[in-house]
Write a structure and sequence with these properties.
With about 800 residues, the protein is an alpha+beta fold. It contains 13 helices and 53 strands. The strands form ten sheets. Strands 1, 6, 7, 8, 9, 10, 11, 13, 17 and 18 form a ten-stranded antiparallel beta sheet that branches. Strands 32-31-29-26-22-21-20-34-33 form a nine-stranded parallel beta sheet. An eight-stranded antiparallel beta sheet has the order 2-3-4-5-19-16-15-12. The structure holds ligand MIG.
């Protein structure tokens, strides 16, 4: 029988006795030091409760089980019973609302229970499992948690091995360039600059140690919050086991309950934060290249967009705008008067986004270097030398972004750029990348917000802390503007500070496919504002490939074309007139869909809804969907299946259950089966969920170019009850925090011979338009009467069907 410890003190005493027994007397070397070997948790001998944390002890190690919310439980292991400090760059909130929790001791186990889940700890072997409310085991240890002392660096290698069920699928883990289902793969998290990476190459730029397991329609998540080099083996080495382990730090993970995959992702966001609502211009089309210079070239680029009537919101300046690649300077030969140039571009509706890298040139005549040196802001090696390495500017030192003082200094450095009118910042090379040796050596020291550590501990969060400094700086310098930042390296939680792109891809059809996998995966891994370099960074796309990539770009959360400097021109018009027309058509589509896209971002910011949902998230109960990876939705209402093959004139598309309308023809299709869809180059398969109220803006050359006079709402009929949202606000300010937004909920109730549409509006924002033009698609009856708030009004017929124009604050419409 287990002896219950009532006071924390007695367990502490027990733990320190344990340490005393282990002291080795070095002046009496009769025995060699103990052999280093893996050690496993043993029989549970004692336990202790402190509020919502429960401690279990096996005479040597202690495990903490903490109830974070009704659906989230955190597990931590302290091999010698002393926990590391409870600090995380990823997690915002470990003390969420919990309705109730309790500990139940049974003969063979302990049960830590909330009203939704139970964490079961076996007394005999310390195996841990998680059960749902019905007692069904969702996830369980295969082997007790284990560790091995690290003789070189101190601390432990830590391991957790769980059972992998037969046919269980695994998803998540960030930017991995492999199939959506990770089963059968072993992957590593170690941020790496991987120019021209290939399919299955690993690791890449980002480390997101979060995955979702899915078995027989039920899912759960595991977030292994450990910033050291981590590994995941998804039934690869052994078909019945999934393991994750790390080279240091603490074995600390969160079990996140589902059973819906979307709920797992939302709950993961409740821990690590969601992406804030970006400025709406960040959702337009962006044009980038390494590099647009000099000034005349940039101005010409802007002119071309406007003359050719191709919408565009942002132009990017890559490293060549700087003086000798010195961050926060301008090359005055290329850009003699950046402020005037940026102002003129702004008059034409272009935002200017500039690159900033972490490497600061070692140059005693360069103010940034001087300030950093004077204040001791640069990273140092184990023996106190400065961390020096070559990057674009030549020999560089690197700010320690894990030091809050350095972050605040770095944030303020943007002052000059913002005064010149720069609207957004692009942080590159922050894995960190160093020419030749790849990244920093392990002995580099970091402040780690006072927690201190070597580069082994800080490597995976270095880029995140850099872009955090950037984000916080922009926010502080321009408190009324939403920052726009983009980063290449990331760790879990980076979505609070930046959008991401997938780095240096290649202009091949295979890379278009990889990009689609990466963006779907990033979206289910908590980094929803993501994009690829449209067209491929290195190499030359054919005209057809570029157009197909633009099409995919319309449904990429971040839509930016980018290319390396040694490639041919890569603008939407670079491939001749025929293709220019096609590219324009699809960029215009992005702008038409902006009110929908913006609403999807709001739903992410507010509720943690993923932006892209791969098909498996929509129908997770169908095992056949485990293999599908080309169809995904953008938000809940638009499903696409980008064309990913050369010369493809038709493609097979699977539509999940429910009814869907072909966006182009308005043909109604029944879901739950596959269709052969025509895919000439001027089309990509796009489907709208039946029941949707889809808002569309008129095409503009950039967001907010004109005030909208009438808003198009297209109602895609279905029988039964469906809801849609529309969110609008000022687009670039924080006025929405004072309720200056218009958040609308449309409810459509369809019957065989009538449709009722109701609108609820919340918020104080006044839209520029006064009316809606409502287009009715797929009514199953001939329209004879339209009642708006109980009054009869007229309707008209156009090529799309029936149309009514009504005042925007209507409460209900009845169609008969
Ligand atoms: O060593 O700034 O991924 O987007 O154009 C290459 C030049 C550095 C890598 C980025 C790419 C960017 C390029 N950069």
């Amino acid at each position: 029988m287990i002896e219950e410890f009532k006071a924390a003190k007695s367990l502490k005493e027990k733990i320190s006795d344990q340490f005393d027994e282990e002291i080795h007397h070095t002046n009496n070397p009769v025995f060699g030091p103990p052999k280093i070997e893996k050690k496993y948790l043993n029989k549970i001998t004692q336990y202790l409760q402190k509020d919502n944390s429960f401690y279990f002890y096996d005479n040597k190690a202690t495990v903490e089980i903490k109830v974070v919310s009704n659906e989230i439980i955190r597990v931590r292991l302290a091999p010698n019973s002393s926990f590391l400090s409870d600090f995380s760059y990823a997690v915002n909130d470990v003390n969420q609302h919990v309705d109730l929790y309790e500990l139940i001791e049974e003969e063979n186990c302990f049960r830590v229970k909330t009203n939704t889940i139970t964490c079961v700890l076996n007394k005999a072997d310390f195996l841990i499992s998680f059960e749902d409310r019905d007692g069904k085991i969702i996830n369980q240890d295969h082997t007790p948690m284990h560790w091995e002392e690290n003789d070189d660096f101190g601390g432990f290698y830590v391991y957790c091995t769980k059972q992998a069920k037969e046919s269980e699928g695994f998803f998540g883990l960030g930017d991995k360039s492999t199939h959506l289902n990770l089963r059968g793969r072993r992957l590593t998290n170690w941020n790496s600059d991987t120019y021209s990476f290939s399919f299955n190459q690993d690791p890449l730029y980002k480390s997101i140690p979060f995955y979702i397991g899915l078995h027989q329609g039920e899912s759960y998540g595991i977030f292994f919050d450990n910033t050291f080099k981590t590994y995941f083996d998804f039934a690869s080495e052994k078909a019945d086991q999934t393991s994750f382990w790390s080279e240091g730090g603490e074995l600390q993970y969160y079990y996140i309950h589902g059973p819906s995959m979307t709920d797992v992702v939302k709950r993961y966001h409740s821990l690590t934060g969601s992406h804030y609502l970006p400025p709406i211009w960040a959702l337009g089309y962006h044009q980038c290249r390494w590099s647009y210079y000099p000034e005349s070239k940039v101005r010409d680029l802007g002119l071309q967009f406007r003359n050719r009537r191709i919408p565009c919101d942002a132009l990017y300046l890559d490293i060549d705008y700087m003086e000798g690649y010195r961050c926060f300077t301008w090359n005055k030969r290329y850009f003699p008067d950046p402020k005037s140039m940026i102002q003129d571009l702004a008059k034409d509706g272009f935002k200017t986004v500039v690159m900033i890298d972490p490497g600061i040139k070692v140059d005693d005549n360069y103010w940034v270097f001087k300030e950093g040196k004077k204040n001791n802001y640069f990273c140092r090696r184990g023996d106190d030398y400065f961390m020096e390495g070559h990057v674009w500017p030549g020999r560089c030192q690197f700010p320690d972004f894990t030091n809050p003082k350095v972050r605040s200094w770095w944030g303020d450095l943007y002052k000059g750029l913002l005064e010149s009118g720069v609207a957004g910042v692009w942080n590159d090379m922050n894995e960190p990348a160093v020419f030749g040796r790849g990244t920093f050596p392990n002995d580099v020291r970091h402040n780690y917000d006072g927690e201190h550590g070597s580069h082994r501990k800080a490597h995976n969060i270095y880029g995140m802390q850099m872009v955090r400094a950037t984000y916080e700086g922009l926010k502080k310098l321009q408190p009324h503007k939403r920052p726009f930042t983009i980063t290449r390296a990331a760790y879990a939680g980076t979505q609070r500070y930046a959008s991401v792109w997938t780095g240096d891809n290649v202009a091949t059809w295979e890379h278009l496919k990889i990009g689609s996998l990466q963006l779907q995966r990033l979206s289910m891994s908590g980094l929803p504002f993501c994009g690829t370099d449209i067209g491929g960074f290195s190499g030359e796309p054919t005209a057809e490939l570029f157009t197909r990539w633009i099409q995919f770009g319309v449904f990429s959360p971040f839509m930016r074309a980018h290319s390396a400097g040694d490639t041919a021109e890569r603008e939407p018009w670079s491939f001749g007139e025929e293709y220019e027309k096609l590219n324009r058509k699809f960029i215009e589509l992005r702008y038409k869909l902006l009110p929908y896209i913006y609403t999807v971002f709001r739903q992410h910011a507010h509720y943690g809804e993923p932006i892209l949902k791969p098909l498996i998230m929509l129908e997770q109960d169908l095992e056949s969907n485990l293999q599908r990876e080309e169809e995904f939705t953008f938000g809940d209402k638009i499903l696409v299946s980008p064309v990913l093959e050369e010369g493809q004139q038709q493609k097979t598309v699977y539509l999940p259950k429910g009814n869907w309308y072909d966006y182009w023809t308005h043909t109604l299709l029944q879901g739950g089966k596959e269709y052969r869809v025509d895919t000439p180059l001027d089309k990509m398969p796009i489907f709208i969920k039946a029941g949707t109220v889809l808002p569309e803006y008129p095409v503009m050359q950039y967001t907010n170019e004109k005030s909208i006079e009438i808003l198009d709402l297209t109602i895609f009929y279905t029988a039964g009850h469906s809801e849609s949202a529309l969110y609008e606000d000022e687009g670039d300010s924080f006025a929405y925090e004072q309720q200056v937004y218009a958040n609308k909920k449309f409810t459509v109730k369809g019957n065989a011979n009538s449709v009722e549409i109701t609108q609820e509006v919340e918020g104080l924002y006044i839209e520029s338009y006064k009316e809606y033009r409502i287009n009715l698609i797929g009514l199953p009856f001939d329209l004879t009467t339209v009642l708006v708030d109980n009054e009869i009004i007229g309707f008209s017929q156009n090529e799309l069907g029936n149309t009514i124009v009504i005042e925007k604050r209507f409460k209900s419409i009845l169609l008969k």
